[in-house]
Structure formats: C-alpha cells, structure tokens
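Summary for the steering committee. The consortium agreed at its last meeting that each partner would contribute one worked example illustrating the joint modelling workflow. Our contribution is presented below. We chose a case with several input lines so that the handling of multiple components could be demonstrated. No manual editing was applied between input and output; the record is shown as generated.
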Amino acid sequence: MNIGELARESGLPASTIRYWEKIGVLPKAARIGGQRRYAADAAHRLAVLQLAQSCGFRLDEMRHLLHGFGPGVKPPHRWQELARKKQQELDDQIARLKAMRRLVDRVLQCDCFELAECGRIAASVMELASR
Amino acid sequence: MNIGELARESGLPASTIRYWEKIGVLPKAARIGGQRRYAADAAHRLAVLQLAQSCGFRLDEMRHLLHGFGPGVKPPHRWQELARKKQQELDDQIARLKAMRRLVDRVLQCDCFELAECGRIAASVMELASR
DNA sequence: GTAAAACTTGAAGCTGACTTTAAGTCAAGG
DNA sequence: CCTTGACTTAAAGTCAGCTTCAAGTTTTAC
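What follows is the complete predicted structure of the assembly.
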C-alpha cells in the first residue's frame, strides 16, 4: 500500500501522514524506490491514533501510544498511567462544558437592557470567577 | 481607570485587553493624553467576555456579543441565535467527550498484545468511525 | 525637576497541528 | 519511450490567541 491508498483508507490527507511520521507519531515507513509502503494494518494503527486524538491526546502524547506494542509487553499496561490521567482530564472537561451549557441557558433566559443591571449574567460571572 | 487598573480588576493582562481592542472584540477606549481610560463598568464587560470565552465562544464570535447593548433592544434577544447554536455545539462536544471517556475505559480493560487482534480497540475504532 | 513606573505603538515571536509550495523523482499506461 | 499522475523533500505559510520586544511618550512620586 502506498501513501495515497493509505490516505484514502484512513481518511487522513497524505500530508498529515507524512507529518505524523516526521514528528515521530508514526514510525518511519519502509521505502521502495524512495516511496513509502505500508502493511495492511497501517490503516488500523492510524485509526487508533485518530481515536486517541479525538480522545484529546495531543501529538506528543500520541508518540508513546504505539510504542508499547511488540512481543512480550502488553501495551495497555503501558497505557494505564496515560489513560487514567486522560480520564481525569476528560471528566474535568465534561464538567466544565456542562457548566458552560448552564451558563448559556441562563443568559438565554435573561431579559434586561443593561449588562450592569442583569442579575443572571452577574450570577454567571460570579460562578465563573469561582472556578 | 487606566489599563493597568482594569487589568488588575479583570484579571486579564493589559496586553490581552489591548489585543482585544485591536481586533475589535472591545470598542476603542477613550484616550487621555494617548492613554486609555475606562468607565467603571468596563471590568463588568470584560467579565462577560471572559464568561463567553469560557463558554466556548471564539474571539470572532465574541465581537458581536457586546454590540447588542444599548437603548431599546434587549441584548439577549440578539444573542439567542448565537447562544442556541453554541448550545448545540456544547451538547455535541459533551456527547463526544462522554464517548471518549467510554473508549478510554474500554482500552484500559484491554489485555492483548497486538493492535490488530484487540477486539476492544477495534470496537472503539468502529464507534469512532460511525460519528 | 527628575527619575521611575506605566503607558503607547507596530512588529515579531510563540504553540500546535497542519497545509502549501517548490523543485525534483518515481511508476504505470499506452 | 514518453507522458501523466503520484510520490519525495525541506521550508515556508496558516490559524487562533496571545506574549514579547523595541523604542518612544506620559504620568506619578518625591
């Protein structure tokens, strides 16, 4: 499989695949005549990376994700610290977004002319300040 | 009030206040001897903007937020479209994060050596692909 | 009156994650 | 064999949202 096919299969632009390889998120691909060749599971690995990315992993965190795989070591074991930390971050982020959702609700119910005299907005501002 | 006092009151760096003015998120402040002077409610307006920002509004969206205020028009009315759209965005993002949380859970319970043979990860990837 | 602190501006620099460009190399079809 | 399309690289450009810098001006305190 060359990079174009992998791009089509994974839904990522080829430029992104090259970029991920360049910064070490992907291992260096084997070359034939200078061009990258990928095994059949490459798309699967990319899918895992896309999953990780959409789970809020940054590229530098993702660099460590695929390294664990190999004979003798169960990767999830290596992932545990990373994943638990990320779980906490996700929980925090969900809580924050829910708070935002409530604030937007409250502002929508507001009916006043002046910012300064708006109790709902003031309350929201207080709530915000307390985080 | 000069920019330094406003910075202390709002908790924002002066550089950010200047930047927000420059890109039109804040109206141009009145000047005395070339230096910005602010009325007492300026900090409150900044707080509203910080609130909006932490509700996920980007700066270009925030540009419209303070415009509604003035005699005769209730700002929340103007905000409704923006806010409802943002509510939808927030709901989507919350749903996404919850899905991510489940996926990280699942990966943590995984116990296999190879990506390709991992049913849990594969299932997560499917779930990802379906969004 | 003078020195320090705070202000002013425009421009450049920063981070993260790419995308685009330029100039060149390789591969597949006819 | 030749054209066309896909590939290669390094380097520069992009976006958001600032921060930092340099050089100069204004205010404030003594």
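The mean pLDDT of chain B is 79. The beta strands of chain B are 30-32, 35-37.
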